Amino acid sequence: MNNTFVVPEHIKELISAHLSDSLHSDELSVLKTWIDESSTHKKHFNEMRVAWIQSGKSTLNDKDKMKSLLEMMNKVSQHNRKPHRSFWTWQKIAASWVIVFIGASVLSWYINEDYHAQTVTATPMPAATVIQAKMGSQTMIDMPDGSRVWLNGGSKMIYNNSFGEKDREVHLTGEGCFEVITHPDMPFVVKANNLSIKAYGTVFNVKAYPEDKAVTTTLVKGKVTIVGKDENDQSFSLEMKPNENVTYLTERVARVKEEKSQPAPSQKASIHYIPEPLVIENNIKSELYTSWKDDSWVIEKQKLGVLSKDFERRYNVRIQFVSDEVKNYHFTGTIQRETIEQVMAILRRTIPLKYSFDKNVIIIDVDKQLKKEFFMKSI
Hints:
By secondary structure, this protein is an alpha+beta fold. The protein has three domains: about 1-95, no CATH class; about 125-285, Jelly Rolls; about 295-379, Phage tail protein beta-alpha-beta fold (3-Layer(bab) Sandwich). The chain contains ten helices and 21 strands. It is globular and about 70 Å long. The N and C termini lie far apart (about 80 Å).
């Protein structure tokens, strides 16, 4: 029986156009209809998208990458049309693009049409898949176990190519939102800094950019357990509840460890009070921490100085403040896929600021005249 899978030529073109952001709205509906027709179509599309993301690390431009992707699709289709001959499956081709080998090991496999015989020649070295979302971009990944992950700009996620077999563990640097498929015997574990966030079937967000000096976990629904060590290197385990936010302050822990490394002046040295590194917030609005991945990004009472970091990652810009005063103004509103120029114009409606662009740098200062007008309106 011939179980070959052939992608129609027009679908290949639509996938390539979508990945290079050149797909029209009417074409998008055609592609979406094809993807929704079967799980095979959906799986194929997601594998091509992961391959495209990984190829972004190369020096190829979008046109060359699209040409390369089309050539790869055509070669596979040609193999599929030849009966009784071995061929690469889409899964193996995608894996050959995204697997990162540690060391100088070489892995090759050859699978026949009946999927019965498989010959592997390899040095038994660890291998991992690396997914990155560059600054100014976001990406969504369908994991091998069916879970779904969104990565924010400037983020990286790594997981072993054996993911889902013995464990479901990923290493995160940056920000990710996780929609985890239930597996009672195998928790989905997110390693961030020196924390392990364990979930069995739930929706949660983890923000762990190194420059933030904190790891913030937000639970939307389900159950999550945070495992780590406190400032005294004592292990702790905290079970979160839905609509709860837990922030682990890594900078504070680093400072405590540094103090401990100093020689004690005497046996009667005073003991300094160091607050717990965990900050827990209850009954929070989870969309304030997860809507960054949606069409409507909801922001509420956020200081501009803090919000600017999110803008830098979302739009791939750098923001410089002339004065500290403007950093402390708060913003509340909803951003719906606006450009950074549009966002700055929106901010100016509620915050007395002025700004200028210097290539990808935005310079922000207080607008004294606008500040006076705002003050007059408030009295």
